[in-house]
Amino acid sequence: MKSRILVLALTLVTALQTWAAPPAAEGKTIFTSRCAGCHSVSKQLVGPALGGVDQRHSMDWIVNFVQGSQSMIKKGDKEAVAIYEQFKISMPDHKDLSADNIKNIVAYIQEETKAAAAPTAAAPTDTPAQVDYIGFSSGNYGLLLTYAGLLVLLVGSLLFLVQVKALRRRMEQEQV
Ligand code: HEC
Prior knowledge:
The chain is mainly alpha-helical. Helix content is 73%, strand content 0%. The chain starts with a helix and ends with a helix.
């Protein structure tokens, strides 16, 4: 019984740690290994600088583009064609990256954009109204959800521990 509780507790702790890892950290790992060869946040390399990319495109568009830019260009997606016309280089498809992976990459890019932005030189923006809207729906909402989930998990694990304690006490009483 004791070892069972231990295993359960360990599983819970591991799950909690996975949950608590900030999305941007995972994004950084993927970005460094899969994107940094062609992209930087602030400088144009083989591909465009990705700082503020979430303000130029919707999150859905970014996910689709990273997973399969070629088919988007073939289908005549206006934004995709426009960038291709500019760079004339095909970006390889990353079909194995999930939407969450790509959202985490964007979270990392957002962090880096903020860190790089000097007080006066913010990333160029098109229309402020649109920027505000996208910022709220994709950025803050996701963060809020993460915190809410974390809170639920914490309260859950506390309740779980209380239950285990109560059970133990009852078992000890029965033994006497
Ligand atoms: C081999 C080089 C290469 C790699 C690797 C690469 N890209 Fe690209 N990327 C490009 C090029 C070139 C473009 C310009 C669009 C085009 O020509 O189709 C681009 C465009 C983009 C755009 C559109 C940018 C804009 O300003 O509209 C996004 C978003 C993007 N890449 C994200 C990524 C992410 C995320 C990764 C890593 C998972 C990645 N790219 C890996 C070359 C690359």
